[in-house]
Each structure stands twice: as C-alpha cells, then as structure tokens.
Write a structure and sequence with these properties.
2 domains; three-stranded antiparallel sheet; 42% helix; disordered N terminus
Length: 86
C-alpha cells in the first residue's frame, strides 16, 4: 500500500506489534531508505578501505558523503547550500 504524505511517497511495508505497549504500530520506509537496500554497504566500505577514502576524515565519512550526494541528485539540488537548507 502506498500513502502520499505531502510531497513524500511512503511505502507501507508491514505491521509491527509492540509487545510492551500492547498495540500495533505501523512501520514505514521512505523511497530514499528503500534505495539504500540496493547498495551493499559492505562492498562500499571495502572499496573505501582499499582506496583509503576515510584516511583524513574526522566527522563526515565517505558513506555519509555518498548519501548526501545521492540525496542531492535524486531531489535535483543545484548547490551545497540547497542541500544544507540554508
């Protein structure tokens, strides 16, 4: 089942039963999250390790940079300022 929420499309994946509260809660994955399931993280990390991609990295890892670039590409951002939302 697909729900439209504003400008976002959310795919309803499954129902999850919360045992401690005793009521059912819904589990949602956004389209953006679903795209990441096609990208094998272990292969990405192996390639970064082979190329020493995180050698001088303190906070912004290669994986986070990749996610940011993918988000910018999908949403049609033209500049870093648009991605940062400032």
């Amino acid at each position: 089942m697909i729900d439209n929420v504003g400008s976002y499309v959310i795919l309803k994946v499954s129902n999850v039963f919360n045992v401690s509260v005793g009521e059912a809660t819904m589990l949602y994955y956004s389209i953006f999250q679903q795209l990441f399931k096609f990208i094998p993280r272990y292969r990405f990390d192996k390639m970064v390790e082979d190329a020493s991609g995180n050698r001088y990295c303190k906070h912004f890892s290669a994986w986070r940079q990749f996610l940011t670039c993918l988000y910018a590409q999908i949403t049609g951002k033209n500049s870093l300022r648009e991605v940062a939302g400032r």
